[in-house]
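Journal club prep — side note

Before the paper discussion, L.F. wants everyone to see what a predicted structure for a comparable chain looks like in token form. Sequence:
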Amino acid sequence: MEKEKITYENKNNFHKLSESEKKNVFAFCEDYRQFISKAKTEREFCEDSCRLLESNGFVPLEDKKTLKAGDKVYAVNRGKGLIAAVIGKQPMEDGINLVGAHIDSPRLDLKPNPLYEDQGIAFFKTHYYGGIKKYQWTTMPLAIHGIAALEDGTQIKIVVGEKESDPVFCVTDLLPHLAQKQMAQKMNEAIPGENLNVILGNIECDDEDAKEAVKENILRILHENYDIREEDLLSSEIEVVPAFDARDVGLDRSMIGGYGQDDRVCGYTALRAILEMKNPDKTAVCLLVDKEEVGSMGATGMQSRYFENIMAKLCAKTAKNYSDLMLRDCLSNSTCLSADVGAALDPNYAEVSEKRNSAFLNCGLVLTKYTGARGKSGASDAGAELVAKMRKIFNENQVEWQMGELGKVDLGGGGTIAQFVANLDMDVIDAGVPLLSMHSPFEIAGKLDIYMTYKGYREFYRNN
């Protein structure tokens, strides 16, 4: 009789996949690579997601007066977040299966009054968004993405730096010959935030009376190409992001490197998983939110009432007699996967990780029982019962998975939307893709992890 296995260990089982399984992994990840190469802002991700949803039979929630099992609906939050749902056979009071990700990423935002000229060079002033290492954003090709909102309600889309024929932009840095003082500074002080100014141009306009001729020339170019004026920049949301596409990494092409994988890798896999839901027992909901990188504040963040409001509408449209208690029961009986990335152990910096409790590249989806910092401060700590439930779902459906935490106990930490979901009286655990170089302009994810995260979300949606 075979001896019962009583030990547990993390393993990279990429090499054990069948040829057909490998083909599925690589095909899925190629679709993902192309998607995130284009959708570099939360607005773009939301817009492209809506197109994907509509092509798979989802309709706007506002178009449905009532809802029945099997209906597919979605709602958009101010162009920067969305909720997609497939109505289940069970009543909403029995709860939903929710996968929630955020689609904002660290970047440079233009300041409200960004354009200026200094020493014959025009610049955009920026304010960095989220946790970045500022030095990583210098001397690399950058693109600008966003909108200018006009007084008449028109939105002018601006994307420059993505086509081969486009110019790109850059934040400059000191040459080593003059950087002795800079290189003696701490890394977080060597590049001040106010120095993250994006270089725009150097040619003067042909008006001899112009006081800032280079700046005016840039304004003329903006007006000619986008029909906007300097005042329109005051009501714009323009982001500065890396100008390159996501790429395969490694001779074996086992990884993907690119910008914004925190957390669009989980947003994309959650979205793809819900597209496959047809008649789930419980209502399946994909939630994509904004502002997680700056604390989930604001009307498009997880701390707003938007999610609750949409859930109230779903409850009301699936039942004849809606009450607030119905919504409360729905939330209390629900389970959520907080779909966010984890930190993969980096052998180059192994000293910051505790190996026995770290996630590893291409060992599968990572469950993170708790986040927070040091003594679990600010953590959402999932209960043992929920961890056991997820183990069962993943093991029964051949989902490769692992457990992990964010570094050694006293070295740092982080948070996700999990704590705000938990405040709704909902069971929640973090589950997502482990990354190398998180929050950098070029984050690295394992393809097996990406595919297994999609598969894990899909099986969770199907769970009764």
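L.F.'s comment for the group: The first strand starts at residue 59 and ends at 60. Keep this in mind when we get to the figures.
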